[in-house]
Every structure is written in C-alpha cells, then in structure tokens.
Amino acid sequence: MRGPARRLLIVCYFYPPLAGGGVHRVLGFTRYLPLHGWSCTVVCAGMEDYWVTDPSLLERVPPATEVVRVEGGSALSLWLRWRRQSGRRSGREFARWRALGDWWLLPDSYAGWARRARAAARRRLQAGGFDALLSSSPPDSVHMAALDLRRRFGIPWVADFRDPWVGLHLRRPVTAWHRAAQAGLERRVLEGADLILAASRTHAASLAARPDRVCAGKVEHLPNGYEPKTETPGDPASAPAHPDKFLIAYTGMLSQMPDTEVFLEALHELLARRPEARRRVRARLAGPFDSGYADRAVALGLTGIVEFSGPLPHREARALQRRADLLLLWKPRDCPSMVPGKLYEYLDAGRPLGALLGTGEEASELVRQGGGTVIDPGDRGALAALIERHYLAWKEGERQGASPPAWLASNTRERLAARLAELLERLKGERA
C-alpha cells in the first residue's frame, strides 16, 4: 500500500447523498483509489439536486476526499425534487419534461449544470496539484465539461461511461438533426479523451470497433462491480423477516421500465391459478417508481401483496436482496449493452434470480453464469411459471440458494479501483 502521492479530479453529477445506481461506481473510486496512491477531489451536484437521496452513503465518503458541490442541478432534476414523494413520480409528467429536454438541451438536461461545474473545476485546476481528470456519465454533459478542461489545462483525461451515450443509445433522438448533433458530441468526447472506460464489455467492444477509429487503442472495460456482503450465513440480516411468506424482491430504478407492469401481470396470473398463494406470496419493489405502476397493481387486485416501498438506504436494499426467496431483474429494453450495477449485488446475495433480458445480451450471460434464469422481456407467461416454480419449492420447505460465480470476486470495487489506479499510472507515464 502506498500513501497518496497523486491527485485525481473527478467530475460527475451523482455523489452522496444523492442515490441511485450511478452513485456507487464513483463512490467506490474515491474510497479505494487512495489505497493505491491517488487521492480524489470530486466536483458534483448539490446535496438535494436529485429526487432520490440516501444520507447514509455519506458515511462511506472518506474524510480526505475533497468534495466541491455545484448547487442547482438541472431544470429536470429540480422539478423532480419539487415533486418528490418518497420516491414516487408521475411517469407521464416526467416523460413530457424529458421530451422538452430532448428537443432543446444537448446533450441532455444537465447541460446548464455542467457549464457551472466546468467553471468550478477550472478554478480548482488553476490552483494546481492535479495529475489526471476523470468524468463519469450519465449525464453525458459531464464529458463536455471535461473536454473543455482537457483542452485548457492539457491534463490527462479519462472518460468513464457507466452507460452508453444516453441521447443515442438509451433514448431515440427526436429528429435526424438531433441524432447527428448527439453523434457529433459523442465523437468529440471519444476523440478528445486519453482513456475511455466502459462498464460493459459489449459497449467497450463496440467503441473499439468504431469504423472512424477515434477510440483505437484507448478503450478499457471496467465493470460496475459491487461491495461484497460481510454477513455470515447465519446473520439475521440474511434470514427471512417473515418465514411464512414467500418474498419476491426487486431493488433499483422502477421508472420508465415496462417490465415492471409485466411482472405485476405475471403475478396476477399466478394468483388466479393458485388462489391460496395470496396469503403467502409477497413482493417488495424497492426503488424510485412511477405512480402508474402502483395504480396498475391496485387495479390487478395486488393491494397488500405488492409493496412499492420507494428507495431504501443502500444497506437496507442489500439486506432485502439477501432475505429474498426470489430476486428479479429487468432494465431498459433498448440498450442491450447495459449491465446494471445491481446485477453484481444480486449475484453476491446468493439468492435465486430471474431476469427479463434479451437473448445474447452480456447481462443475460452473467445471470446464467450465476445460476439464474433468463426470460425474454415482456414474456408474462414464462415469468409467472418461474415464480410458481420457486414458490412451490419454497412451499415444500426448500429455501433455495445460488453460489456466486467464481469470477465475481475479481469485480469488487476495491479490485476495480486498483485496476483504475494502474491505468492512471500508465496514462501519466505516457504523458510524462
């Protein structure tokens, strides 16, 4: 172990106490990079600039980490904060706001915040003492800020993509002009970065194979990773809270996810087939959600069976994963290269796993390697059959489990930070 000798400036939007899947990757960097000689300064959003927060995550921020908060957020994030109701929002209202942003704000609705963050980062870089710069998206606006900083200060720059460029790959551009503009911005970032990190192997491969070769020789796959569980098998946190109930659990974002409704309909189908299960089956969906899904659960007669709990503190979400009799996973359908960060947590939990994912996706293969079952998105009947199979096994007294795959241990955030430190050292050596 080396004492901190170098300093990294990180530009990102999401950092504690803001919550959500995107927070944990950068938090892991700042926790473990100092063990490998890199201290961190983080330029991020204000403490209330998102509709989902988890103050308990602040306990994980190392005291030595310098945090520069740029207050104000994006117009969309401020509206969501104003409308915040325990992690519940109107999907229709959100879609209208996002559509306006897609028309008028490039690359995304965080562009105004990114300009202010760029100014804050510029002031910090002018003070000196930095050896490298890292920007982590989404939102992709952070990369535009970092591109300007790279040009101005000549500092080595790492562009970290937790997801592919959102305006091209997760959302459909509203016009051909918007598509060309988003593609041009993405190209400028890829061309200007000294090193490009991708959280999925599929995305890394697609970047490296671009015909324009703007990424040639500078793409690395660095998975999302996870913090391993520390409880022993007999720990109360891993035991069912209600042993007489079969618990289905999902943790994470439930907004703009059509397979949430597929699950509700599959559960309704199962309960119609096995009415006695209404007394025994419970589902807890823990994460930010659209109110329409909760309304659909009521319409299907699932009141008292399905709970939309809203976002939980991260430690409680991990405990829920370990208590579940069946974990469920789904994600946006239009981004086959995305590997959700919670997948690694699910595998670490050692519980049965069912995933609604496309055949041939990287995430599908990881689920299978962990002993889970993959179902085509939208396949209500197959999902109902999966739930029924695990429910009947539980009813017979068989609380099933799954062993984490052998490769999972190499994906802890501590090991991934060590890998990032190696890449930063190599990058600095190349620029020396």
UniProtKB/TrEMBL annotation:
Q: What domain of life does the UniProt record list for this protein's source?
A: Bacteria
Gene3D superfamilies reported for this sequence: Glycogen Phosphorylase B (3.40.50.2000)
- State the InterPro entries in the record: Glyco_trans_4-like_N
| SUPFAM superfamilies referenced in this protein's UniProt entry, alphabetically | UDP-Glycosyltransferase/glycogen phosphorylase
Q: Where is the Glycosyltransferase subfamily 4-like N-terminal domain?
A: 86-228
A Pfam cross-reference name: Glyco_transf_4
Q: Could you tell me what this protein is called?
A: Glycosyltransferase family 4 protein
**One MF term in GO for this entry?**
glycosyltransferase activity
**UniProt entry keywords in alphabetical sequence:** Glycosyltransferase, Transferase
Supply the PANTHER family for this chain: D-INOSITOL 3-PHOSPHATE GLYCOSYLTRANSFERASE, GLYCOSYLTRANSFERASE
